[in-house]
Design brief:
- The protein has 320 residues and is of the alpha/beta class.
- The protein folds into 2 domains: 4-177, Glucose-6-phosphate isomerase like protein, domain 1 (Rossmann fold); 198-316, CBS-domain, CATH 3.10.580.10.
- It contains 15 helices and 12 strands.
- The chain has helices spanning 4-26, 29-39, 52-66, 76-79, 106-114, 129-133, 155-174, 179-185, 189-194, 198-201, 217-227, 247-252, 262-265, 279-289, 311-316; strands at residues 45-49, 71-73, 92-96, 119-123, 136-139, 210-212, 232-235, 241-245, 267-268, 272-273, 293-297, 305-310.
- The strands form 3 sheets. Strands 2-1-3-4-5 form a 5-stranded parallel sheet, with helices on both faces.
- It is elongated.
Amino acid sequence: MSTPFLDTAARVIRTEAEALNTLADSLDARFREAIDLLRNCRGRVIVTGIGKSGHIGNKIAATFASTGTPAQFVHPAEASHGDLGMITRDDVVLAISNGGEAAELANLIAYSRRFDIPLIGLTSQEKSTLARQSDVILLLPQTGEACNTGVVPTNSTTMTLAMGDALAVALMEHRQFTAEHFRDFHPGGKLGAQLSRVRDLMHTGDAVPLVAEDAAMSDALMEIAGKGFGVVGVTNAEGKLTGIITNGDLSRHMEGLMQQRARDVMTPSPVTIDPDALAERAMGVMNAKKITCLLVVDPAEPDRPCGLLHIHDCLRVGLG
């Protein structure tokens, strides 16, 4: 059911979507020139802006940094009071100002010109001070704003943010930046957990419960109790994994259990996982099989166990 509020919201969103389409169609050789400056930067990308442009600039700098392009936001007012010292000749400055005349940017722009620091100007005004001083201009199309008054930054800030994302992703793909690289910059939170590898979480070495096929069940029980995972892997004379003993196996062989050997009680061909598999995939396998552990086998050494992953290891980092 339509209401004035819903109508306004839909109009704003559609207006901003149209602005983004216009921005995409406006991209030209100057975007490539900006990319060339950024990918050849030996230092950091210094992003700056004031007001709404500053808020957007903070996000753009964070996106650069998290996708493999070293970056830092420098507030232009703070730059005028000493933070210019953070900017070196090896850096590239990305200055954001929709109108291109923000007085707070003057000292930072002058500093970049004095020391020949490359300057990319992101603005909607091609004849503005920022545009004239920049080595490369990223020009936003003048689409107006999404509000009735035409003065509240809406379309302009949305296009600025999108342009920053476009730069970051273009650089990311040029560098062949992978999900694993992304995980290195995001070790915490749900995202870090989802991109964790089994090898990051698994238990290795003496912590892995293993017995030989001909081991007495008393030894197998000691291994299960001592390692605390409720299972034990069974290996042959060559050290290759041939089975696993779980609590279910113990229950099924309770009669005469202590007179048997590990090979008599084990479940052959246990479910295993590659150490380079995503931990989230391992979690899915354990949930599907209704098990709590996976023995880890490295494809480089077929059937030879190199670790153990318990479901609690996944839960501890936020999976599940």
